[in-house]
Design goal:
Layout: H1 3-32, H2 38-63, H3 67-95, E1 99-100, H4 106-126, H5 131-150, H6 167-196, H7 200-225, H8 229-245, H9 250-253, H10 266-288, E2 291-292, H11 295-313
Antiparallel strand pairs: 1-2
Helix pairs in contact: 1-2, 1-6, 1-7, 2-3, 2-6, 2-7, 2-8, 3-7, 3-8, 3-10, 3-11, 4-5, 4-8, 4-10, 5-8, 6-7, 7-8, 10-11
């Protein structure tokens, strides 16, 4: 790997972590003024902020004609969000000897998550690069957002920094920083692709997906340490839904013409469905019966992620 490629990727990752944290902060400050509940903030505002890197990296990849890299980014990020991010969160909570619980409003969103995951897999079977597939994905996203808006229940989040000045300007600058960070990571990933001849699937699944999932790791751990478990679940659920229904729609909007061999994606799709369903069951059970975070479940998710890396490489 050349020094320039290394600089692109590392600087992009560092900038993503810093700018995503700022985007999360200023987005929550803005949303709190409208009396949004913790889960709605997690599933929409924070999820959008942490999914923004996937959106922008996928946009640049699609512009460069690397549509397969976008699919790898989406599938890789969604698996990483659950298997890596949630697994890490559970591990932290286990060693803190704390219970994991989630609010009752999570139930409906777990169903939406499962449905959206099957929609993503279905679109990949038909044609992920069709304009019709993109329109279907975006229409599904609009329906989900309307459901979230109608179900905006719970106690509004209390924010201490309501006197923040130039809020919209800072929000815009954080988004601009994310755009630059996404470009740097995408440029580095394309250099890896050209230098080593690694397939687009694996580059998207690793370099793009892991790099752009770092904001989810930072946001989820920060929320968990503050005891906002509903927001943790909401962030991961909302992020995966946005990745699948919005980010995957990007190649079709640019009329990407990359060939797509669905067969090679079957193992990764099966694994994505398994970890999504397992995650949903675990969170649903904890709605009914709060219990100490499970280290075994944490290990299961970590092992699943390692398996997914092997499947992506092959």
């Amino acid at each position: 790997m050349s020094t320039l490629t290394f600089i692109f990727i590392i600087s992009g990752i560092v900038l993503i972590i810093l700018s995503a944290q700022k985007l999360e902060k200023y987005s929550v400050l803005t949303a709190s003024k409208f009396g949004m509940s913790p889960f709605l903030i997690g599933s929409t505002v924070i999820a959008f902020g942490t999914s923004a890197p996937e959106m922008f990296t996928s946009l640049f990849a699609a512009i460069d004609g690397k549509a397969l890299m976008v699919v790898g980014n989406v599938v890789g990020s969604n698996v990483a969000n659950i298997a890596l991010v949630f697994g890490l969160t559970l591990g932290v909570l286990f060693f803190k000897k704390e219970n994991f619980t989630s609010g009752p409003e999570t139930s409906l969103n777990l169903i939406i998550l499962i449905i959206s995951t099957f929609i993503v897999c279905g679109v990949m079977v038909v044609n992920p690069f069709s304009i019709y597939s993109s329109l279907f994905l975006l229409s599904s996203l609009i329906v989900v957002i309307l459901i979230w808006y109608k179900k905006n229940t719970g106690v509004p989040v209390e924010i201490d920094e309501t006197q923040e000045n130039f809020l919209l300007t800072k929000l815009f600058l954080s988004i601009a920083s994310l755009v630059l960070a996404a470009w740097l990571i995408t440029k580095g990933a394309l250099n890896v692709l050209d230098s080593f001849g690694i397939n687009e699937l694996f580059v998207g699944y690793t370099v793009l997906a892991i790099g752009t999932s770092l904001p989810e790791i930072a946001a989820s751990l920060a929320l968990a340490l503050k005891g906002r478990y509903s927001a943790v679940a909401g962030t991961l659920i909302g992020s995966n839904i946005l990745n699948g229904l919005f980010v995957l729609a990007i190649p079709g909007l640019f009329r990407s013409s990359s060939s797509f061999d669905y067969i090679q994606w079957i193992p990764l799709q099966i694994l994505l469905i398994i970890v999504t369903v397992f995650f949903s069951i675990y969170v649903f059970i904890r709605i009914k019966k709060p219990k100490r975070a499970s280290l075994m479940v944490s290990f299961f998710f970590f092992i699943s992620y390692l398996v997914s890396l092997s499947l992506a490489y092959n």
